[in-house]
Fold:
Amino acid sequence: MTYWLSIVVATPAHSSVAGALTYASERPLLPGSLVRVPLGKREVLGVVWERLPDSGDLLPTQARNVLGELEGLAPLSATWRRLVAFTASYYQRSLGEVALAALPPQLRELTTVQLARRLKRPAAIQSNPPEDTTNLIALSKEQTRAIAEFDADTRPALLFGATGSGKTEVYLRAAAKVLAEDPGAQVLVMVPEINLTPQLQARFEERFAHLGPAQVVSLHSGLTPAQRLKSWLTAHAGQARLVLGTRMAIFASLPKLRLIVVDEEHDPSYKQQEGARYSARDLAVYRAMLESATKEGETDKAAVQCRVLLGSATPSLESWQATVAGRYQRLTMNERIGGAEQQGSLPAVRLVDMNHQPKHCTIAPPLLDAIGQRIARGEQSLIFLNRRGYAPVLACHDCGWKSECPHCSAYRVFHKIDRTLRCHHCGFTERVPRACPSCGNIDIAPVGKGTERLEEHIAELLAGVTRPDGSPLRIARIDADTTRLKGALESQLASVHAREVDVLVGTQMIAKGHDFRHITLVAAINPDSALFSSDFRAPERLFGLLMQAAGRAGRDADHGEASEMWVQTFHPQHPLFGALKKHDYPAFAAQELKEREAAGMSPFGFSALVRAEAREQAVAQGFLNAAAEAAQAQQLPGHEAVTPYPAVPMTIQRVANIERAQMLVESPSRAALQRFLAAWQPVLHQTRQEGDFKSLIRWAIDVDPLAI
Ligand code: ADP
Ligand code: ZN
Ligand code: ZN
Structure:
């Protein structure tokens, strides 16, 4: 007997079959089964999506046969398939693209036989010895209350907890409870960056040591393909009880998922920036809802619960607003651990009005003094500047030449260490010219400062300062340039922890997540540009970053009272800094949300960007405008509630000789925007085919874009 199956394969994005093709099989394969199928001349991995009715005349006569099943692998669950289908539809990509990208790459390459070798006998889920609770720390009042409130509710929860308030302990307790209640239950813990996984993994492994080694696994792109496959398989088999991962882990196959934790939920790296541009945080909320619905074959049982716990000291305004509206539950922890006995343990924020400082000074004299005092006391300072390299531009003051990138509409950054001009957009790198390429003047000079130059500058400014024991000052820098090599970041962080550094200079990389105990002064040198950015999320990011940076200071109770956060600004009256001074995220959020509501921006309005790339800017824009006109002419579903704006060049208009344009599409209704985008997809394809857009290279839709 022949069965007809709809099988999802990695077809090109936006294919008309939506990624599913019809195949024939001699065996009645279950939906979710992983199979190998022929596609053109290749043999590829596919996921059985559904069985097709065998009503003879509907069947395609050309259907090819399934080549084999990946035996020993249970089918992917209906919930997993629903999550993938939702992602494809919401983010306007093909089902095949999303489904196959959600599986570990090695699974796609392995033959059936190779896989059989990898799959050890699925270990029976053993009943675990109970957790040893004798060594657990006593929870703070706020932690106790947060956990009780979390347990008493079923809504998605936002743990709004100050840096150092002990959020991790709350995650650990929530996970422990779920794991103890059900011997098969699984927990997914997401973190924004791979760098943060080892520390967290160690903490979870230690706490859940009683579960055995195979039961805490990590899933992120820093793993080798083999490690990643192994983690994925143990999660899929239900052996891994706790999966720790970055955004990609949201698609892990977890047959008994009961809790999803999203740490630092505001972090932009939860948004995928290519292919299907999904938000792993938003999908976490959606997945928890799907997992909580009554499962197939479990209809008579009580519906299962999967909770989601988002955590941040500076939540995204989307999540915050959801707590204001009551869709999410808010759990608040204001105090740092140990803070109750030690009033004022959050660092004092000092704004330096740069209008009243010497012209062109990079570090204001009072800040320099303060750093000197820290050094004299044997304490550490962290100076942070969000721009790497030596100087953002090299310029000739005679003829006005600037170090533009020949391939991008951007300047190449001067890196002094290897005397290069490097484009941070396309990577184009050249030796610094000896003289101005335009007029021959040998006096070309760096303009502005990056971290490399700041490090050098601080060394000059602090030249006379010595450490308490008279030994020379130690200045270090951490940014993407100093941490390129594997292990470099770890060793540099270790030397900061070991107090081998007095002044640390760096980019936002060091403002995040790292727990520096001996840093008592944090300074933001030049944060102003974000105040007046065309990107409406820039203030939110700046506030979050400054709060995070402030959180780095004085986490050591010994220094709690004396720690300071310095901010150099030309706009000390800006309300953002007012809220920062009081460490008042709710005030900042209320102010921002009021402005966003008035402007109909997220979370009060919804948007998508269509980006187009072409050899000529006019073609990229022309294509987008033509597609928008076609949408208007055809009165697409949802169009009455959707506003497409004219196409504009992207902020960095040209990268690697490719012109880039984008079109913003807005709607007060998420549903209308979704309807419109779904109907617009085929129109965009058609516009490309029928119009005169030969130099158009590609286009893509970004739903809920983070940067506009
Ligand atoms: P957050 O993630 O909220 O910034 P952490 O979870 O890193 O804070 O906790 C800060 C520090 O406080 C950690 O060193 C942690 O081990 C410690 N800690 C957390 N909860 C408690 C507690 N109840 N009693 C004592 N120390 C705690
Ligand atoms: Zn010149
Ligand atoms: Zn370039």
